[in-house]
Amino acid sequence: MSSAGTKLGKQDCAAPQTKLRALLVEDNALDAALVLRALNKDGFEVAANIVQDEAEFTRSLRAHPPEVVLADYNLPMWKGMDALKVLRAEALDIPMILVSGALGDVTAVECIRQGATDYVLKDGLARLPEVVRRALREKQERSLRHQIEQDLALKVDELARSNADLEQFAYVASHDLQEPLRMVTAYTQLLAERYRGKLDESADKFIGYASEGAQRMQVLIQDLLAFSRVGRQETSSASVDCNDVLKEVLQSLAAAIAESGAVVTHSELPAVWADRTQVAQLLQNLIGNGIKFRGPEPPAISVLAEKADERWQFSVSDNGIGIAPEYAENIFIVFQRLHARTEYPGNGIGLAICKKIVERNGGKIWAESQPGSGSTFKFTLPGHGPEERIVAQ
Amino acid sequence: MMHLLLELLVVDDNPADVALISEALAGTKYHSKVTSVGDGVEALAFLYRRDKFVHAVRPDLVILDLNLPKRDGLAVLAAMKAGPDLRLIPVVIFSTSQLRKDIMRSYEMGANCYVTKPGNLNGFFSAIKSIEEFWFGFVNLPQKESNG
């Protein structure tokens, strides 16, 4: 085994010196000296280890991690490019510059393609300092970018986790609230049934209020559970034919459609990449709203879709009471209602669920409306899955 | 037609629910005798006539909650379905849970039916009355020796 490396100290130079830890893969002592002189002459104060084979290279890499590797392309026992494999195996991002007596353009391009940072010919060593400087700069930028990406990924992770915690909390809380509330509901109803007219008028009224409140809270909790379920369920995305889904939705709304005399028209609808059950719920909520918030005329609802880049943009329009523009965003918040319960029943959960469904399936939803002139709800959904998109390019 | 006194065992840790079940069955034509225990260990002691339950009567029907202290409803169900005689007693799971996993698990383990506790009084009463009507009115229960 040869010696583990030769240390060469700094050499005298007038220019301000940049300290540089370099690892040279070189079997020719004279060439090594020339490389170091080229660097020292141009502002580097180099501390270098010089090695000739893989064992030495690996050992030196671990003992004194360099900032740059300068490797001869042709060594008697080893190929300079093999140093790259070692760097990869050690998971080190250290720029490697080939320094070679003769390197054809084709070979040079191939080396860079394989991961060498750059190459310098031995008879053009004056270029070396600039090449090293650029390699170090790029490395620094790479590290910075990597750091930023990591920070971002960490933040995204944290956010996803706290979101999941919140959903879990909402689910558990509402689930566990159901049980005691069922007692309150059942027993206030039992009281009302057994003791109506047997106490006094106020007692009947009080029991009535308590009973109504408990029942309303039950519905609220069930809505909250339905809302948090959208977030908790795995969405299983597939290509979904919206014509089929709409047909089913209209069937389950048949009673409301018949009762209100609603007319629902639609264009030919596309296939989207989404969770089928959720798309059905989305359409059902929007069309159901069109029927519920109707004006004096029987509801006329139209469902249209048009292509918008990689996505489909749907619109569900009605001729109902409309929404003042200042409420166009609020309506998507959980339990936000614009009307008294006596005018239009409900808890204000439908559109919140719609928003959650659309966002979970990679789209956006918004409302365009004027009071008295109907509402149009628009949403986007991806037309195809991620892998198909790659094929399409 | 004369109705025999039918024995109903309610396994539920919530006294309010037990009281509602008794209320629902008060005054029906079946004269069911309701006995209740509050946890899984007591339920099994009752069914196997152990400890303070040595004189317990074998129930004709068990109404079993899932979420119970000590041993849960599924453990009680499993123990019942493993006993040569106890496995003959019909078990109605009566739980708040609407989770598919609870429902599937109950049937897999041999529950005779699964009923979710309705949230309002009328629903609750009609569920319990229907259970009684079905099991004590229409169903041929496994015959006791004296009837054979």
Description:
The complex is a heterodimer of chains A (about 400) and B (about 150). Chain A has about 400 residues and is of the alpha/beta class. Chain A has helices at about 30-40, 55-65, 80-90, 105-115, 130-195, 200-230, 240-250, 255-260, 275-290, 350-360, 385-390, and strands at about 20-25, 45-50, 70, 95-100, 120, 235-240, 265, 270-275, 300-310, 310-315, 365-370, 375-380. A 5-stranded parallel beta sheet of chain A has the order 2-1-3-4-5, with helices on both faces. In chain A, helix 5 (about 130-195) runs antiparallel to helix 6, helix 6 (about 200-230) runs parallel beside helix 10 (about 350-360) and helix 9 packs antiparallel against helix 10. The longest helix of chain A has about 70 residues, at about 130-195. Chain A is elongated, with a radius of gyration of 36 Å. The two termini of chain A are about 55 Å apart. Chain B has about 150 residues and is an alpha/beta fold. Chain B has one domain (about 5-135): Response regulator (Rossmann fold, 3-Layer(aba) Sandwich). Chain B is built from 5 helices and 5 strands. In chain B, helix 1 crosses helix 5. The longest helix of chain B has 18 residues, at about 120-140. Chain B is globular, with a radius of gyration of 14 Å. At the A-B interface, helix 5 of A face helix 1 and helix 5 of B.
- Widest β-sheet, arrangement of strands of chain B: 2-1-3-4-5
How are helices and strands ordered from N to C of chain B? EHEHEHEHEH
Amount of beta strand of chain B: 15-25%
Strand order of the largest sheet of chain A: 2-1-3-4-5
